[in-house]
Amino acid sequence: MLRTLLSPRTAARSSVQTGDLPGDAVIVASYNVHKCVGLDMRRDPGRTAQVIGEIGADVVALQEADRRYGARAGLLDLEALREISGLTPVELGSEGPAHGWHGNVLLTRNAEILDVRPLRLPGLEPRGALVVDLQHDGRPLRVIAAHLGLLRISRLQQARALVEALGAEEESPPTLLMGDLNEWRLRRRSSLAPLAARKGETHTVPSFPARFPVFALDRIMTSPGTEVLRLERHDSALARIASDHLPVKAWLRLPEPTQEDVAAALRDEARGTGV
Question: How far apart are CA 69 and CA 126, in angstroms?
Fold first, then answer.
């Protein structure tokens, strides 16, 4: 479902200008917030929220949004985040101080959440991913938010686990995988080869380190039929100091809903209104 399409040097270029983008394009982004600690060594959740607000996306995958050890308490200022960006975190249905799962948080705006599955990923260090099925303007979308390990062997195991979680290609809805995948290689020796074999597209642009981005560690990967109209890194003065990563951002055109999608949405609406 997922293969390499763009190289780090060419990914930022696009023939689609912002003014040419359709009004129904879905804006998605991935951002490693570095536990809200900036390059000035200050922990400032309010500043992190401001950067997320600058991005202006409909769906945002965050990494390192919780403490890594102990109670893994959440580090974001959720109230400030809502006020600044209009985004809210997808609820995991569990009590506790964490905002997400192994630091992964998915933020959405005006989306209907259908299902949430936290995944434990294998490897030498604790890692996880969130699989979220949602509807955006009646269009189904599966979003996988992930943060893969620092060791190549662990990333390879984790990529295989994500392929298993994706399920059969013919049964999967349009799928988007995004996050800090900690892999800069695109072809040879890439630990993401199991994902690339799924015949989709990988979209990359250098995003690390924030002050002089060279490595494309933060990836957006899409299944066939989900078109990326534009890709860029969000490079503002605030973003350059708020984290060691810059956010990456894409405009998507989702496939038109099928008759089955429309029928399912109507059934869900009927159940919700008691008809």
Answer: 10
